[in-house]
Amino acid sequence: MNANSEELYLEAEADIKNNNYAEAFKKYESILYEEPDSAPAHNSMGWLYKTQFDDYAKAENHFLTAIRCDNLYPHSYFHIAALLMDMERFEELTKHLEKCLKVRTIDKSWVYGRYALMEELKSDFEKSIYYFEKAILGSQNDEKIKDYRHDIERIEMKKEINKKHESNSDGR
User: Of 8, 46, 107, 134, whose CA is between 20 and 30 Å from 126?
Assistant: First the structure.
């Protein structure tokens, strides 16, 4: 990005923090008009489309474009993973996470954490715990490790509840 686009981008990011989405949207559009290969601007436009308009198709297009523009820019990978998780497109999410493991700018513990959350949503609690443990092994951040431990506790509780419901099942 050139200096003018960088300044405009930072202003747009401040607009988002201040919930001034319309102004941010205009600034990102302006950046993309001048620099159509700006990964940060595409990523932020994708975020706006996903969170403010619930337009998952446009959001996905911007996230994927950002990845094509700069395959080391990590934020777009995070957002596309969230989008795929929200849409319960688990097969695509699995492929995306496999790709993320090969991107050197992405924290691998985050990737394993996403695998774990996906397995939790699918009610495969054993796999979820396995991936949270891999996330712990891959992390060097004490706070993240504590969070992953809490995640495992949540999954253990769900396992107990699931077991109780399976044994008390009356067909409903």
Answer: 107
